[in-house]
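The records we work with from here on pair a chain with its fold. Taken together, the tokens spell out the fold as the letters spell out the chain. To see the layout at work, look at the sequence and tokens printed below.
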Amino acid sequence: MGSKGKKSSKDDKQYVSALQVAKHAGVSRSAVSRAFTPGASVSAKKREKIMEAAEALGYQVNDLARGLLARKSRLVGLVVTNPELGYRSHLVAALTKALIQRGSVPIVINTGQTDDELVAAQKTLFGYRAEATIILSGSPPSSFVDLARRNGQPLIVLGRSETGADDVNIDNEGAGREAARQFLASGCRKLGFAGALSRTPTTVEREYGFQHEAELLGAAVKIGNGRNSNYAGGQEAAEQLFSGADHPDAVFCVNDLVAFGLIDYVRRHTKLRVPNDLSVIGFDDIPEAAWDAYNLTTFKQDASVMAAHAVALLDRRDAEPDHPPVHERLTTRLIERGSARLRTVIPS
């Protein structure tokens, strides 16, 4: 067949191979492999020639092929439900950055909502033989945890706990207790909690700490729950809390998104003023909490700190695969802004 039937060289363009680098540098293919393998034996002069050839050709090591040969990839799966929402989006961003700095390749697995989406996500993660899995708080199915465990894959769980897995958690209950103490010490007497019916371990702990501490100090708590812990859920919780005359004068919200929804509802549907008539505390301290529209007093949950702890646990598990599960609990810090009139309270 004549040249008219052939594809152009542009169509046939492929990634630069190690063999091409070897020919360009005038060395063997195995020498190129050794030059890009830490600790492998190759002379300094030969390594320099190989690196110059690789730079000239634009060569990059095929890490996928290396992983297949070694039966260990550098892929780390991040399993998360609704990764685009609130604090979770910032945690995913911090984790991907920390993992890339570690030399890992993060894969974000959005578990979705339907059974078909869950099955597809699960097949994707384990089909690529990820080195480890990090499961974020929310509601990823327990089947992920079970399958990872049966395949001997290291697990790091954030914002929740699973048997046999390392985890990093926030002191959610302690924050809830502090919120109750802050409100009561500042003269508030009718406390409210804005939560969600889509309960997760973190939201349950925050609610328990707040309600239990308030009751210990002689105050009752009115609870409003939206369907989800998002902006719309905050509006739904606010409607329950402020639909009658006996409304709270202080509300602890399960997260900042719920607080935003609640504050906007109060502004549009009641005559109450924040913070003059109503104090509001959120949780997470996402960037929007500092916006003038909300100026939200909230507990700071630092995504970069949690990501650093997660990566440190991965490194430890890699070095000590038989070490007993590690359970870390991080503290929060109350960031005072203008949505709550508080007095200084010394944490107990």
